[in-house]
């Protein structure tokens, strides 16, 4: 099995509802995402996939949808107020934990046709979550 991994960085803010720790308050992260793509065989270029294709597809989506946005649960009481002042957001049906963000990026990557096997999101240099299909 061959695999390649592309690293992407982005910034986001969030908070966790129904949570007793400090993450219940609005705060931000400088995230590092690792997107691993696997294949049994190499393509005609002798690649699993071109790193540029991962960048164009996944980083392009992250830049448009997640970078420098508040990622919030859809029913967060702050959503209406933030929308009223034009604050960019990405809304989820669940708490925007790093686990859910890893799954979101995995799902979007697969929807765009990349044979992604694993997405790891580093929320801090010492804390990360992985979703593998």
What layout of secondary structure does this protein have?
Elements: E1 2-14, E2 27-39, H1 51-65, E3 69-73, H2 78-84, E4 89-92, H3 98-111, E5 116-124, E6 127-132
CATH class: Alpha Beta
Distance between the termini: 15 Å
Number of beta strands: 6
User: What is the helical fraction, as a range of percent?
Assistant: 25-40%
> Which regions have little confidence, pLDDT < 50, spanning 5+ residues?
none
Please tally the helical runs, counting DSSP H or I stretches of 4 or more residues: 3
Describe this structure as you would to a colleague.
- By secondary structure, this protein is of the alpha/beta class.
- The protein has a single domain, classed as 6-pyruvoyl tetrahydropterin synthase/QueD (Tetrahydropterin Synthase, Chain A), CATH 3.30.479.10.
- 27% of the residues lie in helices and 38% in strands.
- It has 3 helices and 6 strands.
- The protein has a 6-stranded mixed β-sheet, with helices on both faces.
- β5 and β6 form a beta hairpin.
- The mean pLDDT is 97.
């Amino acid at each position: 099995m061959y695999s390649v991994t592309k690293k992407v960085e982005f910034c986001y803010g969030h908070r966790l509802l129904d949570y007793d720790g400090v993450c219940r308050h609005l705060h931000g992260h400088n995230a590092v995402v690792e997107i691993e793509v696997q294949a049994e065989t190499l393509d005609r270029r002798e690649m699993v996939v071109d790193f540029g294709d991962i960048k164009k597809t996944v980083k392009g989506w992250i830049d448009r949808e997640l970078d420098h946005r508040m990622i919030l649960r859809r029913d967060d009481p702050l959503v209406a107020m933030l929308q009223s002042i034009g604050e960019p957001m990405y809304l989820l049906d669940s708490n925007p934990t790093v686990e859910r963000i890893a799954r979101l990026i995995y799902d979007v990557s697969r929807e765009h046709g990349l044979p992604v096997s694993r997405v790891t999101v580093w929320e801090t240099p010492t804390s990360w979550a992985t979703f593998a299909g």
